[in-house]
C-alpha cells in the first residue's frame, strides 16, 4: 500500500507522516516531496498527451522529450530527491523505452517554432534550403541535419499503466523501500485531485490535509521561511481566489480521506481512529511521541498574535465560510509556545 500524505502547500500534511511514524509496520519517507506524477511534465502530463488527447505524432514526441528533460532535474546537486539522480534518470529512460512504440530520425513543426527568433530562422533555413537544396543534391540521399533528431512516437500504448506502476515501484526500491510493507510518502498525489495519479501506483491511498484559510493566510504572511512564496499574500482578494479555486470540483473516492489540520489537533483521538480505520492499521505504539498535538496547536488561531489583521480575516470569514474550522467549540485552549512553519519545522518570530 502506498500512502500519500498530501496537502495544498503548508496545510499541515506533515502531521500525517509524523503520526504514521509512530506505527512500527509503516515505512515513512518525507525528506523530499515525491511529486513525480503530477509535477509539470510528469506522469499526468505524459498520460494526457499519449493516452487522452494526442495531436498526430508531434504532441507525444514533445511530451516524452519534456518528461525526460524534467527527469534530469534530480541530477542537480543539493536538492532533495528520492534516490541517486543518475539512477532516477536511468529508470525514467527505461520507462520511456518500454512505452515508446516507434523511434526514428525526423523533424516536426515544433523544431522551427521554438519562439527564439534567431534559432527558428536557422532551423527554417536548414529545413527548407540547406538540407534539400544543397546537401541532399550533393550526396544524392536524404540527410538528417539539425533541427532533425530522435523522434518518439507512442499513441495509446497498451502497457502504459503497467509500465508506470513498475516505474514508480522501481524508484521506491531504489530509495530503499520494502514494497511488501505499507509506505508513506510526502505529496505523491496532488491535494486537489489525488485520484488523477492513482493509476501510476499499486494500491494507492491518500490522506489530504487542509488548513483553515485564516491561519494559512497569516502563516504565509508572517513566516520567515524563504520557501513560503507559493501563495499570494500581498492582496487578500488574490489569496481568497487562490484558496477557493484550488479546492473546486474535488471528487469523492473511497481511496481518499480528507481531514482538517485542526481536527487532528483539537479532535485528536477521533481523528486517529478515522485514519487507522481508513488504512487498516492499529498498534499505535508511540502515541504522541512524534506528532504532538499539544505542540502543533500553536499553529492555530494565529489571529491572536496578529490583531492588526482583523480586517483581512473578516473578509476571509465572509468569503470562505465553508472552509472555516469552528474554534468557538474550544474556548479554553492553552497555547504554550510560538507557532512554527509546518514544512521547515523552524520557529519564527511573532
Task: Indicate the overall shape.
Answer: elongated
Can you count the beta strands? 7
Rg to the nearest angstrom? 25 Å
The portion of residues forming beta strands comes to 5-15%
Structural class: alpha/beta
Strand line-up of the largest beta sheet? 2-5-1-6-7
Tell me about the largest β-sheet. Answer: 5 strands, parallel
The run of helices and strands is: EHEHHHEHEHEEHHEHHHH
Helix content: 25-40%
Number of helices: 12
Distance between the termini: 40 Å
Please mark out the parts with pLDDT under 50 across 5 or more consecutive residues, or reply none.
342-350
Q: Quote the average pLDDT.
A: 89
Summed up, what is this model?
This protein is of the alpha/beta class and 350 residues long. The protein is built from twelve helices and seven strands.
Word description of this protein:
The protein is built from twelve helices and seven strands. By secondary structure, the chain is α/β, with parallel strands linked by helices. It has a five-stranded parallel beta sheet. It has a two-stranded antiparallel sheet with strand order 3-4. It is elongated, with a radius of gyration of 25 Å. The two termini are 40 Å apart.
Amino acid at each position: 500500500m502506498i500512502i500519500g500524505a498530501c496537502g495544498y502547500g503548508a496545510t499541515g500534511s506533515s502531521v500525517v507522516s509524523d503520526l504514521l511514524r509512530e506505527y512500527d509496520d509503516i515505512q515513512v519517507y518525507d525528506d523530499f516531496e515525491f511529486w513525480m506524477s503530477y509535477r509539470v511534465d510528469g506522469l499526468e502530463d505524459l498520460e494526457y498527451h499519449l493516452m487522452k488527447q494526442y495531436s498526430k505524432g508531434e504532441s507525444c514526441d514533445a511530451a516524452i522529450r519534456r518528461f525526460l528533460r524534467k527527469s534530469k532535474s534530480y541530477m542537480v546537486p543539493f536538492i532533495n530527491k528520492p534516490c541517486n539522480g543518475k539512477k532516477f534518470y536511468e529508470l525514467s529512460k527505461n520507462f520511456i523505452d518500454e512505452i515508446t512504440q516507434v523511434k526514428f530520425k525526423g523533424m516536426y513543426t515544433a523544431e522551427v517554432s521554438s519562439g527564439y527568433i534567431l534559432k527558428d530562422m536557422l532551423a527554417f533555413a536548414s529545413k527548407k534550403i540547406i538540407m534539400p537544396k544543397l546537401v541532399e543534391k550533393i550526396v544524392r540521399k536524404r540527410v538528417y541535419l539539425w533541427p532533425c533528431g530522435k523522434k518518439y512516437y507512442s499513441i495509446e500504448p497498451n502497457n502504459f499503466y503497467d509500465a508506470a506502476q513498475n516505474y514508480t515501484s522501481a524508484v521506491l526500491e531504489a530509495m530503499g523501500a520494502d514494497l511488501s510493507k505499507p509506505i508513506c510518502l510526502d505529496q505523491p498525489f496532488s491535494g486537489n485531485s489525488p485520484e488523477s495519479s492513482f493509476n501510476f501506483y499499486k494500491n494507492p491511498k491518500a490522506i489530504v490535509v487542509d488548513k483553515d484559510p485564516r491561519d494559512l493566510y497569516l502563516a504565509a504572511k508572517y513566516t520567515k521561511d524563504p520557501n513560503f512564496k507559493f501563495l499570494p499574500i500581498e492582496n487578500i482578494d488574490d489569496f481568497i481566489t487562490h484558496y477557493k479555486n484550488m479546492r473546486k470540483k474535488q471528487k469523492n473516492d473511497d481511496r481518499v480521506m480528507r481531514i482538517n489540520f485542526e481536527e487532528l489537533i483539537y479532535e485528536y483521538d477521533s481523528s486517529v481512529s478515522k485514519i487507522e480505520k481508513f488504512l487498516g492499521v492499529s498498534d499505535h505504539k508511540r502515541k504522541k511521541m512524534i506528532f504532538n498535538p499539544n505542540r502543533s496547536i500553536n499553529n492555530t488561531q494565529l489571529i491572536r498574535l496578529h490583531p492588526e489583521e482583523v480586517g483581512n480575516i473578516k473578509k476571509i470569514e465572509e468569503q470562505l465560510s465553508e472552509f472555516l474550522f469552528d474554534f468557538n467549540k474550544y474556548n479554553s485552549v492553552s497555547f504554550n509556545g510560538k507557532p512554527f512553519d509546518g514544512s521547515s519545522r523552524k520557529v519564527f518570530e511573532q
